[in-house]
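Here is an idea for our session: we take a single protein and study its fold together. Once you have written the record down, we can walk along the chain together.
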Amino acid sequence: MTDLPAATETPDGQGGLPWWARRRPSWKTVLSVVIVGIVLAIPMRALMRYQGPPMEEGFMLVFPERILHGDLPHKDFLHLYGPGSLWALAGWYKLVGVSITAERVFGLAQLAGIVFGVMALARPWGRQVATAVGILGVLLTTTAIGLTALAWDGAVALLVASVWVGLRARRWVTDAPDTPGDLARSRSDRLLVLSGVLAGLALLFRPDAIVATALATFGLMAGLGWTRWKRWLIGVVPVTALYLVHLALSGPSAAIEGMVIEPVFDLRAGRSLPRPPSWDTFDGALQKVALLRPQPWPLPSLHSPAQAFVWFFLLPVATAFVIGVGWWRVRSEPGAWRPRVILTVGLLGLGLMPQAMQRADTTHLAWVSCVTLAFLPVAICELLGHVRVPPVQRWAPTITVALVALLPLVVIPHFTARTYLDLAKQSANGEVFGYPVTHEGRTFYLGARDIAPVAQRMLDEVGPQIQPGDRVLVGTADLRKTPYSDAYLYYLLPDATPGTRYIEMDPGMANAPGSGLAGEVAGSDWLILSHVWDAWDEPNDSRLNGSDEPNEVVARDFCKVGDYGEGDRTFFEVYRRRTADGGCPAGSD
């Protein structure tokens, strides 16, 4: 550990603070933040009413509300991550009410945390580079899955904040030689504790962030000694100990199965995609749907699947480049702070990499790129700043911005700049790609012009018949395959009780033998079975049929209330449980 001098007090009352601690943001720095804030705000009008992913956004609306009703994740409903995100959202919904607007505001806060957190890490390389980092972060975060308040985004935002705070703590130790010892030590200690708290919160959101947490913490703490590590642990241990509360409430077996066994071992076969992605077609079912609404792009570029293919290789190369520059600079200047920032962020990106590799679609690639690719300008600028060519050194920030602009404009524009400009246009003209479905004062936005009015008609007709407390199960029309679910329907039927723990449906899990789905179907009062995902086709085990027992229960115990569709296409089938004498309730077939 670095020895710190004895405390002395200076006449200005600042205790000999180093220049970087005394410095106040200049108007240019404020302008940089405002510019990025405006870029982030431009598509918000559209994103607040944009179509949402029916299952992912659906369960981030439903799960926290189930907690407010006394249900527990892993015990009462399938949840593949830690409880932290659901606890946070449940508290937010308790405060402001359950609505898609509240959920998206929370999601926006998470994305802003990532964007401005990475931008803050880039600030030592100048306002020009930091602004480029912020804008690139906006293009990568807002275009991935909208404002859906997923646990991953929250975990990444918290990890970025933990790294920033931890690096500030390190700077008080290594980069403030003239600061009084007690002052520097106390500030460093407080910041290290806070860094640990933020890391612990990230792990509560996503326990699989443990690899990224470990690598990033090693990067920022290396060489500081056990005393500093203890300060960080004082922050992280009590927060992660909240898992003991979760284990006690949900039960150790259910919690471990939900957070470890199911996501790591049961889920992969039905969700994994080829690595690398196919050059000429999308492998993911949801990305194939996106092809139905192509947008023009004026600049030369590869076709969309080829861009995803290139992105798959670009991400690990960029990660290796950031780590390489950081390692080189740390070796050259072991005590310098800026090289440590680059190395630590590079290690953080490396730890996030499994998220991109497990399912190599552009959404998962963006979830990691929002740190690694967004920080790439810093590594490039650092490298150019040490090229022994004075003009290159002098113009390093400008050259960096020009090079990095190629990423969203030429290399992967269809998933960044093109999507962003489309959202900006929708915000300007008010013609948002999202078709509202409203029931019981709640609204969800679908992306299919033909399905939305059918879902609305179904809810208008069937909703009033569903009594408070009735058990409603939303599933696929053929329950032998459960690749996806219209979980948003549970949100639009707030007085009903979900009839299954599989609010989120996954192949190889909900349809697995012994999953309990058949018993849950048998115990439900209503079934809403969807044909929307009949065409789901991915090169994985989602193609395989599971148990037919749930279908047999439907045929035996339920009467059809009606088919809902358009023309000769049926989107939803609604069933009601037979009466005690085996007959069909009034209004059923």
